[in-house]
Design a protein that fits this description.
The structure is a single chain. With about 325 residues, the chain is α/β, with parallel strands linked by helices. The radius of gyration is 19 Å and the shape is globular. Helix 2 (about 85-95) packs across helix 3, helix 4 (about 155-165) packs antiparallel against helix 5 and helix 6 packs across helix 7 (about 265-285). The termini are far apart. The chain has helices at about 10-20, 85-95, 110-120, 155-165, 170-185, 230-245, 265-285, 315-320, and strands at about 25-30, 35-40, 50-55, 70-80, 100-105, 130-135, 185-190, 210-215, 225-230, 255-260, 285-295, 305-310, 325, 330. It folds into two domains: about 10-185 and about 320-330, Dihydroxyacetone kinase, domain 1 (Rossmann fold); about 185-320, Dihydroxyacetone kinase, domain 2 (Hypothetical Protein Tm841, Chain: A,domain 3). Strand 10 (about 255-260), helix 7 and strand 11 (about 285-295) form a beta-alpha-beta unit.
Length: about 325
């Protein structure tokens, strides 16, 4: 294992410290925790958007803290949910008096720990709402959508919620916008190789030299199809068709599109995938209002990518296009 690290068990901590040192104009670290808050927090009268989850998915989640995005983020160690106390303490630190919205991926450990933190806050009179991102179509069929896990769709859900909160929306309004974003998000990924967790120094799964897995999750969860390597055009077309079918897309629909890198695939490959995604959308008579290409929800050093669509209505379009400034996204 060759990695630019120091102590394997301090990767999450040192990464957070480096992020804050690199982007002090956006955020500051919470003492004693793997957590950051927006530089201006707490902002009086504004709904607090708090996100988080396991480390190893950088720039998600701490990289999404800033103006028009999240107000705070709490991380666990690599691929591990953050425990309730730092979630509770960070929410208290960032709370501006208008309530807190938790946004995180739909994983059992995150659900348990964030729910416990929400109960602790509610006992002190803080209003808390929750949106669990569930965009990964490979993880459960449509009739069990509530069981789906969250992957790169977190970016769009946080973007929409952050913009609505920045406008001065109430907790109910911000939550409603985030729920609408989640309901209209679909994602699917493809893995070309495993990642290596620094503390173990070993791959978490095995793919042979000419093998890929479509639908694999950010932590190596099983996908929907394992088979021989194919061209970028073929892989992208299959993923796009699966996403559009799940969305029951119509020719009048408009989308935000994200081609997300999983950590090890170069930007050139992601642009080749986006080229194929764009052509497939065009052939289906559909249009992309806004496009994002890059590492937004990685899996350490996994090779591969995911594709995310968010179907837009007038509100989602407005909130998606609103200005934002954070380490992982600057949008004017």
């Amino acid at each position: 294992m060759k990695k630019l690290i120091n102590e394997p068990r301090k990767v999450a901590l040192e990464a957070i410290e480096g992020l804050v040192l690199a982007f002090p104009q956006y955020l500051r670290k919470v003492n004693g925790h793997l957590a950051v808050v927006r530089k201006e927090a707490p902002i009086s009268g504004k709904v607090t958007v708090l996100t988080g989850g396991g480390s190893g998915h950088e720039p998600m989640f701490a990289g999404y803290v800033g103006r028009g995005m999240a107000d705070a983020s709490v991380a666990g160690n690599v691929f591990t949910s953050p425990p309730p106390p730092p979630i509770y303490e960070t929410a208290k630190l960032a709370h501006g008096g208008a309530g807190v919205l938790f946004i995180y991926g739909n994983y059992s450990g995150d659900v348990l720990n964030f729910d416990m933190a929400a109960e602790m806050l509610q006992q002190e009179g803080v209003f808390v709402a929750t949106v669990r991102v569930s965009d990964d179509v490979a993880s459960a069929p449509p009739e069990r959508k509530g069981e789906r896990r969250g992957i790169a769709g977190d970016l769009f859900v946080i973007k929409v919620a952050g913009a609505r909160a920045e406008e001065g929306g109430t907790l109910r309004e911000v939550t409603s916008s985030a729920e609408r974003a989640n309901e209209n998000c679909r994602s699917m990924g493809v893995a070309l190789s495993s990642c290596i967790i620094p503390a173990s120094g070993r791959p978490i799964f095995h793919l042979s030299e000419n093998e890929i897995e479509i639908g694999m999750g950010l932590h190596g969860e099983p996908g929907v199809q394992r088979g021989p390597m194919r061209s970028a055009d073929e892989i992208a077309a299959e993923i796009v068709h699966r996403l559009l079918a799940d969305l029951s897309a119509k020719a009048v629909d408009e989308f935000a599109v994200l081609v997300n890198g999983l950590g090890a695939s170069p930007l050139s490959e992601l642009f080749i995938v986006f080229r194929a995604v764009s052509r497939t959308l065009k052939d289906a008579g559909l249009s992309a209002v806004r496009s994002y290409v890059g590492n937004y929800a990685s899996s350490l050093d996994m090779a591969g990518c995911s594709v995310t669509f968010m179907r837009l209505d007038a509100e989602l379009r407005r909130l998606l296009l609103a200005p934002a400034e954070c380490p992982a996204l600057v949008q004017v």
